[in-house]
Write a structure and sequence with these properties.
6-stranded mixed sheet, alpha+beta, 5-stranded mixed sheet, about 375 residues, about 25% strand, binds manganese (II) ion, Purple Acid Phosphatase, chain A, domain 2
Length: about 375
């Protein structure tokens, strides 16, 4: 797939709503647009990765198609969108079987896959022994529109003040990038640490912004005003405690970002006050640097050594990979909480709750009551 560039002018007096990495959460996208009061006066930009890691991949593609018909909406390609399209258009039986086998694992991990949804719609329940080669012609026919839609998603969108791309760009000379392989721009891992800075703001998804948090997990977009880069990805689907992030600009010339988020987690109401721990002393074991030494393994909580510090983590967060122990995203950060605060429940332990407050994850040890929904959206 070659890099394509779409240039548009953003008219004044129209809000610009920017999101990315929907990952099969069509209901989340609908909810966040509703929360942002998205109307036909607004402009929507989705910076790639519509599919996989969630239960509604096909629905998300169709929702994006619909949004582009009925509203001013721009949708870019993500690396996962490209990956799925490559498999769907492949005539290689080995690749078709690989897609089936990946999809079966995805069903276990994330409760769904694009291929499961496609098979279900043509009346087939996808199984390990499904003759996927025999099914592919029917899938191609039935989903010709959706497959064509994926293949036509542009790589880069450029406006007067902004450049949007799923992963990142090595430089701002966009005309030089057109026609080159799109893959490195879609899967530009850890773009923040490339250290690059730009004239126009470069807005990307792909790499969960939380992985860039210095000492506690912060799921909000990371906006680096000096280097002029914005990292949107709230890790929706990728992490259980992930969220959708939507940035709103009052118009396309503005740099005044407002944030709206969407979460699927159950909501608690805190009943006690809790003093937070000093943020700079907190430790965040992040997926991109997850290796630990287990100092004490307990039934519910264990102690691990992480960069010379001993911290308590839920035992169920521990795992082993290639003979090394790791811990999935965890922190010892204690959140500052006031009675009445709304907390999103990630994990309940006997001594406290691992929660998210205003997009930041940490511990709460006080009393609480369960609330049903944040608000009916
Ligand atoms: Mn991605």
């Amino acid at each position: 797939m070659k890099t394509t560039l779409q240039r548009v002018s953003l008219p004044p007096h129209r809000r610009v709503l920017i999101t990315s990495d929907i990952h099969g959460h069509a209901d989340g996208l609908r909810a966040i647009l509703k929360k942002a009061r998205f109307t036909q006066d607004d402009i929507l930009i989705i910076v790639g990765d519509l599919v996989e890691k969630g239960p509604q991949s096909l629905e998300t593609i169709r929702l994006a198609m619909e949004l582009q018909k009925e509203y001013t909406a721009y949708v870019l390609m993500g690396n996962v969108d490209l990956w799925r399209w490559e498999y769907l258009q492949s005539d290689d039986p080995a690749q078709q079987r690989e897609m089936r086998d990946y999809s079966l694992r995805a069903m276990e991990w994330w409760g769904g896959s694009l291929l499961h949804e496609m098979c279900a719609e043509i009346g087939v329940s996808l199984q390990a022994d499904t003759d996927i080669e025999a099914l592919f012609p029917a899938i191609r026919r039935h989903f010709a529109k959706e497959i064509a839609y994926l293949s036509n998603l542009p790589t880069i969108l450029e406006t007067e003040k902004y450049i949007f791309v799923h992963g990142g760009i090595p430089h701002e000379r966009l005309d030089e990038l057109v026609g080159t392989d799109a893959f490195p721009l879609l899967k530009f891992d850890d773009f923040y640490h490339s250290g690059l800075s730009f004239q126009k703001y470069v807005i990307v998804g792909h790499w969960p912004a939380v992985l860039y948090s210095p000492s506690f997990p912060d799921f909000r977009p990371l906006i680096d005003r000096q280097r002029r880069v914005v990292f949107l990805d709230g890790a929706c689907g990728v992490k259980y405690e992930g969220q959708l992030n939507l940035l709103i600009l009052p118009d396309g010339q503005s740099e005044d970002f407002q944030l709206v988020t969407w979460d699927h987690l159950p909501v608690l109401k805190a009943l006690d006050a809790q003093a937070g721990s000093p943020p700079q002393e907190a430790t965040y074991i992040r997926w991109s640097d997850r290796w630990v030494t287990i100092a004490r393994r307990g039934e519910e909580m264990s102690d691990v050594m992480y960069h010379g510090k001993r911290i308590a983590v839920p035992t169920q967060y521990l795992g082993r990979e290639n003979g090394r122990d790791y811990c999935r995203d965890a922190t010892d950060y204690v959140l500052p909480v006031s009675p009445g605060d709304e907390l999103l429940l990630i994990l309940q332990c006997s001594h406290g709750c691992f929660v998210k407050k205003d997009s930041i994850a940490g511990w709460y040890y006080g009393k609480y009551e369960m609330k049903t929904e944040v608000e009916s959206i």
